[in-house]
Amino acid sequence: MLRDLLSRWPVVRQIQNRDWKATGETAMSGQTRDLRARNVGAEVTRSICPYCGVGCGQLVFHKDNELINIEGDPDSPISRGRLCPKGAATYQLHTVDSRLLKVRYRRPYGADWEDLDLETAMDMVADRLWESRERSFVEKQDGEWVMQTKAIGHLGGATLDNEENYLIKKLFAGGLGMVCVSNQARI
């Protein structure tokens, strides 16, 4: 019994195995010996980080139609396995438990939030956007055609990808005449 107890003591194992740095088997418990990376057995798909124009490479690990992990691609000639904080948080962005999956709305002067269906919320946004544009749209200024509104602006967030930002710019600037269009990613 005492021998069994001593053999489990890391210092005794270190002496017996002549592992003076304690970096090998002597440093491991049964629990650490059985640890495996969460990516083991997962399929890997190469991708590109969607959050800016740099195009850093990402490895997307998935198994049984479930996202396992996302990390930098060491074979990417652009990023060589490195990701900025936004790119490094791609996995958490998609899997965090606190991610809202419904539209929350608080009425003007209201104190409580309520759930809205997506169709109702989109109609409200579209109606308010169009009403503001109609009220503030300027066709000519100082005899020149400007076809713009300065009463509406758009600031895109860091979770928008390049394609979404392109479409937003085309719709808001070209279609609606907004001149105040920017994005957090450029800051």
TrEMBL record:
<dbReference type="GO" id="GO:0016491">
    <property type="term" value="F:oxidoreductase activity"/>
</dbReference>
<dbReference type="GO" id="GO:0009055">
    <property type="term" value="F:electron transfer activity"/>
</dbReference>
<dbReference type="GO" id="GO:0009061">
    <property type="term" value="P:anaerobic respiration"/>
</dbReference>
<dbReference type="GO" id="GO:0030313">
    <property type="term" value="C:cell envelope"/>
</dbReference>
<dbReference type="InterPro" id="IPR006963">
    <property type="entry name" value="Mopterin_OxRdtase_4Fe-4S_dom"/>
</dbReference>
<keyword id="KW-0408">Iron</keyword>
<feature type="domain" description="4Fe-4S Mo/W bis-MGD-type">
    <location>
        <begin position="42"/>
        <end position="98"/>
    </location>
</feature>
<protein>
    <submittedName>
        <fullName>Molybdopterin oxidoreductase Fe4S4 region</fullName>
    </submittedName>
</protein>
<dbReference type="Pfam" id="PF04879">
    <property type="entry name" value="Molybdop_Fe4S4"/>
</dbReference>
<keyword id="KW-0411">Iron-sulfur</keyword>
<keyword id="KW-0479">Metal-binding</keyword>
<dbReference type="GO" id="GO:0030151">
    <property type="term" value="F:molybdenum ion binding"/>
</dbReference>
<keyword id="KW-0560">Oxidoreductase</keyword>
<comment type="similarity">
    <text>Belongs to the prokaryotic molybdopterin-containing oxidoreductase family.</text>
</comment>
<keyword id="KW-0004">4Fe-4S</keyword>
<dbReference type="GO" id="GO:0051539">
    <property type="term" value="F:4 iron, 4 sulfur cluster binding"/>
</dbReference>
